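Reopening this ticket.

The earlier resolution said the output was attached, but the attachment link was broken on my side. Pasting everything inline this time so it's all in one place.
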Amino acid sequence: MSEEIEMQDKQTKKTVNRKKLYYSIAALVVVAVLLVGFSFAWFFNKTDMATLMPIKEPSNITILGPNGSELTSLDLNYTAADKNGNTVTVRRVICVQSAADKFKLEIAHTTNLKGLTFKLYPVSSNGTDSGYTYSYNAANPIEGTYINLDNEKDYKYANTSKHNNNYGDYQSVQTHAEPLYWLTSQPLNADKSTVKNQVTIDGVQNHRTYYVCEVTWTETTKETDIFYILAQTA
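Inline output:
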């Protein structure tokens, strides 16, 4: 099933310039790879199931918004059209800009919201004269897995395998504040096929690869979660 997301210039600028998130709904913070956030968010080292690899700077990779616009956060405000019963689903476009041919993506998040799920879809085409339309295949999400998931029913819970990386010996951590880490199963290929998605920075050609981030949760007026999307060259 092919889906499309349209982004008009005014809407894009409004999203980029927004300084505050709708915390009564949820908060999704998208950060560049050089930012060590989320209680020291870490990348998983595929070669060692018990080892996490710290993010190091500088890096030639960053996360941007539609049409390669500057992006620090995503607005998850929603309308009735985004609801099915009490289930909310929002989709936002992100761009990974990198000089590398391959990279990894990670989603790190807290677990307050009921029914909280994430999916990432590769964009198959983008760009129109009137704005920006991003097409993707809704039946083809990127494969990934949680590396510290303890339980997944109505709510997700993290096990304690990564606790010390975030909190050390401190044990009085609220259950839903223990972060979960979702990682792509394989390195992703940069989009090198489309000329309009190439940009030269300091004499180095960078590739812009677009994705649709889909977030689903059960509607509530009381809970807030924080999400990070991070990227690392592979």
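Reporter confirms the inline version is readable. The first strand starts at residue 2 and ends at 7. The two ends are 30 Å apart (CA to CA).
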